[in-house]
Amino acid sequence: MPERRVLLIVLDGLGYSRDRLSELKEESWRHLPDSLSSLLMTQADSVLKRGPDSPYRSPQDLAMDALLPVAAENLSENSVFDDATSRLNALEALTAASAGTEVLENVAGVVRDQAKRMRYVPVAANAGHLAEIRNANLTIPTSASGRWAGFEDVDPPVQGNSDTGHQQITNLRLAPQLPMEITQSIDNGSFFRNPELAGIVSRAVADRRPINFTYLLSGVGGSDGRVHSAWNHLEAFLRLVFEVHEADPRLVQMQAILDGRDSPDTSSMDRTGDIGGYIDRLEDLLGRYEAERSLAWVIGRNQAMDRDYREPNVSADYASLVSGECETVRGFSGLKRALSKFHKDGGGDGDLPAIGVLHHDLDPKRIGPGDAFVDLNFRADRQRAKVAALAGARNFLTRESQSRGRGWDFDWLNSNLNLDICGIADYHPELGTRYGVKAAFPNRPHRDNLLALFPSFAPNEQYLLVGESVKELHMGYFLRGRREAPPSSNSEIRNIIPSFGEQEGVVNDSDVYKVPLMRSTEITNSLVEAMSARRYSLICANLANTDMLGHLLPRHFEAAVSGYEAVDVALARIVSVARDFGYHVVITSDHGNVEDDTSSHSNNDVLTTVISPRARLIAARREVYQAKLFDVSWTIGRILGVEDELKRHMAATGDADVGGPDVGRPIVEPI
Hints:
The protein is of the alpha/beta class. It folds into 3 domains: 1-16 and 126-175 and 446-671, Alkaline Phosphatase, subunit A, CATH 3.40.720.10; 18-119, no CATH class; 183-323 and 360-441, BPG-independent phosphoglycerate mutase, domain B (2,3-Bisphosphoglycerate-independent phosphoglycerate mutase, substrate-binding domain, 3-Layer(aba) Sandwich). 40% of the residues lie in helices and 13% in strands. It is built from 25 helices and 18 strands. The protein has an 8-stranded mixed β-sheet, sandwiched between helices. The radius of gyration is 26 Å and the shape is globular. The two termini are 14 Å apart.
């Protein structure tokens, strides 16, 4: 392998909204002083006269596009390649013409003021480093949602998310996702014959044992979650339980988890168009089977789906299920009154403490020894602690919590429940092999994963993964293509920095606004040290601020701005050091989030920027000026000089059309 080095940085949850940016341009232009707009128009006219073949129709069109800090964010989706490059060249020429004057600086102040008014975080932030990096280097819009993230091809597209985004980034071809596999099984009927799902239900029905199950209320369509769960999966499971196996609703007990993170934060009750109103939807769905009484518990996701192994959250969730330690309400009507009051008092769905829903009971339902328990949420990271606790996996929980700098006392854990547990997905192989947790849809690692192939093309090299613990699986399981460990123990070094915890006031993810810098400084220091040592040919890092703070919009706008500014400062230092030590840098994002003033992810495009330590790189010609996340791995391969090895691997698999729409290709011309 040639003596080249690459640093991959994933800016978690940073996309851009063409619609909101178009509005920002209009408003900013309207608020520009006449003197500034006239001067900008004069300079734009001069640029267009020097390039008569420009796609810009008028000086004003060019001048208005120059208002945005990042030139590539002006491009329409799937812009024709030549048109896009001409527009970017014209914008670069206009910037050069304004150099040495205060025009663009004064314009930027007006634009930032309007962005603050519109609450558009990436421009409202006082953060010019990333924009300069984008504009000075090859930057291309990148598809990161819907079909191109491995989901069903629906309209609106399924929003991007972290696990599939990281899987696509290091895959050589489109990495299909589990939700689509589950949906296909529902459509072809095999879901209802699934040996694990059908088995656990039939055993419980035969023995008259309770069937307990948990589900995150979201995912009705493409734009309201579907990050951890999908509504059609819930519908199919209830059909399996009540129609196929004719279970008694009195012996079916559901834990409904409220979202408020990947869907609007009061959407359990509130409905806008097709999004939200999940409690009403659930009541109607259970009503089809006269099973309203099956709703036993309701809880927010911050306790029920903690992924950073915070004992207070995991134990509170467990205690509500196993010991009945929760407030109670009577039926759906009482639940709706309680949720309305909780929202009125300022609470969001994700923070709801556990509620027991009583129907014909005097006390909350409890999961008892030998019961069946089914987890219908398909994403692994937020189900591990929950399922491990119910499985009595004390050793597993001890190891995972200690790796994050947390010590547990376990005084709440009953290791003798002996539940019959099945997850819709394989959350961790150890939970199956050691603790008997079954998986309805087994994990299948992606064969065409760059990190999995790394030992074959760089047998004497190592790569480094850097991140913080709240995103630990992103710099591990997800990036490796659904692998718990690297194929070769000698190929990978990992530095996972414990995220802030209770000492800093962070009890759950809703508290991150208190520490908007998160661990960006520590991650930066780790990267600087690693690049300075020139030990690794490939380094991958995740900066999580824009996603973690983006989920707290619209409540914590200023914290989201601070988080973005922290990333901007980190990138300035990281890119500078990378150049000094001969590293190429690839900056991309797994999905959009912080650019929309909502708590959820978006289906917006992201940007991918490729930086050379020397001359500026040239974009590889393609039909449209638009990349896909799975182009990133080919780009890294080309820079490292192993593109031919990757092509040989793809040819050997025999099931991929190199050059086809579902196979990646390098973003840059050969170096």
